[in-house]
Amino acid sequence: MPNRISRSTILLPNSPSILASAAVGGKKEGEGPLREDFDLLSEDTTFGEKTWEKAEMRMQMDAESRALKKAGLHPEDIDVVFAGDLLNQCISSAYSLRGLAIPYIGLYGACSTMAESLMLASLFVDGGIARRAMAVTSSHFCTAERQFRFPLEYGGQRTPTAQWTATASGCLIVGEKNEPPYARAVCVGKIGDLGIKDLNNMGAAMAPAAADTLKTFFQDTGTSPENYDRIFTGDLGQVGSDLLYELMEREGIPLKGRHDDCGLLLYDRETQDVHAGGSGCGCSAGVLCGHILKLLKNGTYENVLFMATGALMSPTSVQQGESIPGIAHLVHLSRKPQ
Amino acid sequence: MSQTKITSREYEELNKKASPGTKSYKTIPSAFLIGGFICVIGQALTNFYMSLGLVKDEASAVTSISLIFLSALLTGLNVYDNIAKVGGAGTLVPITGFANSVVSPALEFKSEGYVLGLGAKMFIIAGPVIVYGTLASVIYGVILWAVGLIF
Fold first, then answer.
1. CATH architecture assignment, domain A3-175
2. CB contact, 8 Å: B16 with chain A?
3. Which of A33, A196, A211, B115 registers the highest number of CB atoms within 10 A of its CB?
4. What pTM was estimated for this model as a whole?
5. A326-334 and A40-41 beta bridge pairing
6. How many domains does chain B have?
7. What are the pLDDT digits (tens) for A106-136?
């Protein structure tokens, strides 16, 4: 049974295993530093489909089928799936899963969805509610642009603080304790908002929530950054990461040197013109399912904190002058069970 | 709690320090050069049309039409946005920018059909420009009329 040690932090004494994971990416992701870590990279950003939305669904389906295959499982072996994405009404998830007949729980956590779905899947398995649970999410640059910003061919300029929505999907399957990596604890984030209104500076909007979740987790568990090989944040980008260091520094918790951001790992900022870094549900999902879990499996890392961050605004709320609420959920992944 | 310790105002200060600014020393000259280049093309076209025997007004109108066509074509060929990435206001301000702002949503939203997609979304960026441009011209006309009454 999960062991709740505070309002936010829940330990997982049964330490569910991550049985398998798969990461799918697009062309730009294939040109980035993590190209070797993806299970599938498509040269064609349409993934052979007629619309961008269909392309994103296809990408998610590819991730799901590959994760199932790697785990040697069939859809009927999965007791529950947690899925979400950025599109209105989470259509990528609903459509990608409509053929699999797995009990479905749809989530909206914006770019934090990978951590949110992994957290819930781990809790369900640890508590014995499910034997095997799937967590999946995706984002596509072209679907996100047309929903949140401008048409693709519109001749606008991006500001230096803007982030690039990743075209990627990640899917993983959590099962009862088996082999490493294990999920040992989760920390449910609280919504944080320090008044950032700029849609082109989401790293700054999410950094306060990230700092709060991290600090809460360290306090609740009596640990510090030194206890972990690496702390991965979702997609704060350069601006958000710098702000996170500053906020944590004020709390007396230095992070620099132990921290990496998925948005900064996925692309080469110098050559790939992504400004402050990558973003989107697929960014942290691709980096977790392709890169981080691989490094945990092969023993490069023993203990890792994975904390994906999300910006919970909509184009409407921003147009009405509202600031951007941020969220960050954390999962402690380890090679040792609890 | 980190959120209670720091105020929004303090955070805004931190954000300003962490956010890199636009490199104006690079962007302004490139906007000037690319915008200027578009104007040179316009002037060359006007001269060319006048050499064919059109009077200045007609030549100007045909030049505008030509620039709109070129911009629409380059938008369709996925080129215009790449020029605009460097050109900034240089590609936004001339009539080519306006054409791009109509053609790009038309292309983008075609997937939702010709009526509710292309037709409805075509002016999603250019619409406000037309509305407030027309309104401004009315106000300007009224001022001109009033000034004419006084003097």
1. 3-Layer(aba) Sandwich (3.40)
2. no
3. A211
4. 0.94
5. unpaired
6. 1
7. 999 999 999 999 999 999 999 999 999 999 9
